[in-house]
Design goal:
Length: about 80
């Protein structure tokens, strides 16, 4: 994924799923298409496997805590086909 939206949310009362959904919605508003990939810090994912509305949520150590990097990964679509 080369282009995406970096979303910051450190509200401890929000569930991870809600933060990811909000980032996905903002991505749709800004780019006019639905994302298919999301990266978050491994500690935020806490060892869980997560997929929301067809979006793969993956752990990436280069993403800061409380940040969500969401976007469209063309290569992920090619691998799935």
């Amino acid at each position: 994924m080369r282009i995406g939206l970096l979303w910051y949310d450190n509200d401890p009362k929000k569930a991870l799923e809600q933060r990811v959904r909000e980032a996905m919605e903002r991505y749709r508003e800004k780019f006019g298409r639905a994302p298919n990939t999301c990266y978050i810090h491994p500690a935020d994912l806490n060892g869980r496997t997560l997929a929301l509305e067809g979006v793969r949520v993956l752990a990436a150590s280069n993403i800061l805590r409380n940040h969500v990097w969401v976007g469209y990964d063309d290569e992920a679509q090619n691998r799935a086909a």
